[in-house]
RNA sequence: GCCUUGGUGGCGGAAUUGGUAGACGCGCUGGAUUCAAAAUCCAGUUCUUUCGGGAGUGUGGGUUCGAUUCCCACCCAAGGUACCA
């Protein structure tokens, strides 16, 4: 049989689509299995060979599970809101929806070409109003919830209101803003509606707050940390300042401990769990309040070392701390203000990355030590960040290297409060070996005892208590962008109101321009038809805003992670218009059994999704509080860039072997112009880069050899390899096999198209093997042995996600069966099933060849039988001092002593020993013989 | 700095609980076939060698009859993260 992959692949892709072979049913007697890929952002560049790596792996697993009798859910969709489409819209005026649709179409073609077993009937797009209706709906549920620390879960805000009506808020143990006032039920009843709303906002799981952002006045927009380079915007190089802005936030911090605890229950890669653990950043310590001398103000700090409180010789506030302007003395005012201004120009990342420069200014004010009542100077310094802890540090220079360096730099005293420790050169931070001295009631105690004691004392004087602090901050949920989900929010008297569920989705309005308005409002500020008519529950023209019946709508949109935080649930019942999903259906699918995607989403998507899932669980909307049992990170595929070398002196282009001693610069050459032997197609290169049309190419052995280097696969490095060309030349099955053959799924590895000929010729050999199938040919013992060791290995490999070794196993199997001239249907039939998860098109074709009418996709996976692998002799490796020197064939049932006797009698043993008497002979039957001496 | 992962031929990589290092594939070399090329097939391919053998999995130690695998120290690379008080 000839391997006509183009015909075969087109035929079966068409068959799968028209027969809906991979459509999953929402109920079944079979056990369920949910295999999920991280859905892609459909960029304009299309897929490169790095993208499908994870999809191929998950597809193999999904197909394998079908062979194993599971009802498999394997959906795909698009994370289709995002910046590139918006950027393109700004440049060209083209509506992002149009660009996005075109990109999705191209993605779909590319994905279809690879033969994935997706259930496309469940496709979702985050930018589709039918989908984002439910993103908006979850937002409303969050708005209508608060976090009850007693029950340790999110609850309906109505319960909170009725508690306020009964008892006020003094008995409530809830997660809320720090500045929430205490009130009783009578006070609550006298509050205005607006005041009530203001207070409730301090409890809601999504709320409005003033948060600091990187504001670029010239661009009129907010920038992400990585859009800022050296304090100026990456695009255009405009200045960026820190600015407060009212934005929606998510109270993810309420879930900090549960997000930490939940990691114990899920089978995710340890590095990913570590990243989340560090991001949440739990630390135990104490909250301490320092009184400011001659004032009413108090400075709260969090410290992990309350035991060292007697060593505190100064305090440092973040320059943007609220108290700075209030406590600074007249003499220091100028210096402080200019320092604060200078700090505002630095990005947070910049401030944190710079460890070497020590800077700060004295405010002129003093705090009072809670126990000694001694004055403590209050400084400001940009190493303290307003968003961490309380934005203030109790500085103990003898116990913290950073405080030590700061004290040295500004000549602040460094009192020693440790017994028997020299601190003349550096701070002493070793908790385990600490004995406190010079510290009044703490003298002689170790870290633990001193900490306990000092917290007791702080509580007695009302200036502190033990506290667990989390590094995790509430997540800002507003974006000043156009191409995102609109908030279902309008404003009455400045207070946010939710649009009722039945009027969702609130669709994104059309705008003339996708840029921020001249007034500095987000792009939705350009919309003329963007006001909410409360009586008629419709969007109307802005002119009609009267703040009585017609109100302004929210101008921000939601961030990229909004749409991806619950899509895995929505796939289960993707087109339900009545509910986010049917409870019976999610009751059947429950959660994701296997999730495959990149580790770069560790602290974004994967943390936020866990948060949303826990919330949905608390509110009885989802049955599981973790959405994915098992997660695998696929590694990155790097590109192998190619370089030509231009001599800067002569202008000639030298082959790689000739560049020594010359003043050459490497220039990227497109990898498609280079063959497997690193030889450049010079004519094609000249056509590609016309400026080299007349350049002289200096060859070695008549060839131009390029230099090679492994770099990230990227358009700008001309090392992107497109799967379309490979499919065209070798077929999807070859590409699938080769991507897996490259190496372990989770490791990053370089791409080199040249190697694909190996798997391609394997598929040809496979076809050849099926050229003369004999229905009734009895399989030989050898045939059965080859088949069953392949079954065993492939099954183990798939279960362990070791797909690369399976491909080798197939090659060995086909090589052996070819050598054995196997034609037996009893062997070739199960082999086709083994291959089918990896190379599904050819497997279907061979299956048909074998006489089947139905798709191979649900054929039962062959059963391994150990009896065929039983051996009656073993080729023993004979080692001397652990080094294998020769081999010897001996029967399997031979005893230890007989083996030893046989080995010692062998002539090579005698030669090796050369007259010496062995000290010891180790015989492990069935394994090895080792002679020592 | 810290956390994580990794380091094996010219290249991608294999070696399941400590038991034959380099499977499988690419590339390369030689040969067959061909007018020639492609394709295909066969043989060889860790290094070294006086052809007996010897050395060898980042480096240096250790445990063991035996270490790519376990332990200690270090070096290098990639990714993540950061004055977290």
From TrEMBL:
<keyword id="KW-0547">Nucleotide-binding</keyword>
<feature type="domain" description="Aminoacyl-tRNA synthetase class Ia">
    <location>
        <begin position="706"/>
        <end position="738"/>
    </location>
</feature>
<feature type="domain" description="Leucyl-tRNA synthetase editing">
    <location>
        <begin position="278"/>
        <end position="459"/>
    </location>
</feature>
<dbReference type="InterPro" id="IPR014729">
    <property type="entry name" value="Rossmann-like_a/b/a_fold"/>
</dbReference>
<dbReference type="Pfam" id="PF13603">
    <property type="entry name" value="tRNA-synt_1_2"/>
</dbReference>
<dbReference type="InterPro" id="IPR025709">
    <property type="entry name" value="Leu_tRNA-synth_edit"/>
</dbReference>
<feature type="domain" description="Methionyl/Leucyl tRNA synthetase">
    <location>
        <begin position="38"/>
        <end position="144"/>
    </location>
</feature>
<dbReference type="InterPro" id="IPR001412">
    <property type="entry name" value="aa-tRNA-synth_I_CS"/>
</dbReference>
<dbReference type="InterPro" id="IPR002300">
    <property type="entry name" value="aa-tRNA-synth_Ia"/>
</dbReference>
<feature type="domain" description="Methionyl/Valyl/Leucyl/Isoleucyl-tRNA synthetase anticodon-binding">
    <location>
        <begin position="784"/>
        <end position="894"/>
    </location>
</feature>
<feature type="binding site">
    <location>
        <position position="715"/>
    </location>
    <ligand>
        <name>ATP</name>
    </ligand>
</feature>
<dbReference type="GO" id="GO:0004823">
    <property type="term" value="F:leucine-tRNA ligase activity"/>
</dbReference>
<dbReference type="Pfam" id="PF00133">
    <property type="entry name" value="tRNA-synt_1"/>
</dbReference>
<dbReference type="Pfam" id="PF08264">
    <property type="entry name" value="Anticodon_1"/>
</dbReference>
<dbReference type="Pfam" id="PF09334">
    <property type="entry name" value="tRNA-synt_1g"/>
</dbReference>
<keyword id="KW-0648">Protein biosynthesis</keyword>
<dbReference type="InterPro" id="IPR009008">
    <property type="entry name" value="Val/Leu/Ile-tRNA-synth_edit"/>
</dbReference>
<dbReference type="InterPro" id="IPR009080">
    <property type="entry name" value="tRNAsynth_Ia_anticodon-bd"/>
</dbReference>
<keyword id="KW-0067">ATP-binding</keyword>
<dbReference type="InterPro" id="IPR002302">
    <property type="entry name" value="Leu-tRNA-ligase"/>
</dbReference>
<comment type="similarity">
    <text>Belongs to the class-I aminoacyl-tRNA synthetase family.</text>
</comment>
<dbReference type="InterPro" id="IPR013155">
    <property type="entry name" value="M/V/L/I-tRNA-synth_anticd-bd"/>
</dbReference>
<feature type="short sequence motif" description="'KMSKS' region">
    <location>
        <begin position="712"/>
        <end position="716"/>
    </location>
</feature>
<keyword id="KW-0436">Ligase</keyword>
<keyword id="KW-0963">Cytoplasm</keyword>
<keyword id="KW-0030">Aminoacyl-tRNA synthetase</keyword>
<protein>
    <recommendedName>
        <fullName>Leucine--tRNA ligase</fullName>
        <ecNumber>6.1.1.4</ecNumber>
    </recommendedName>
</protein>
<dbReference type="InterPro" id="IPR015413">
    <property type="entry name" value="Methionyl/Leucyl_tRNA_Synth"/>
</dbReference>
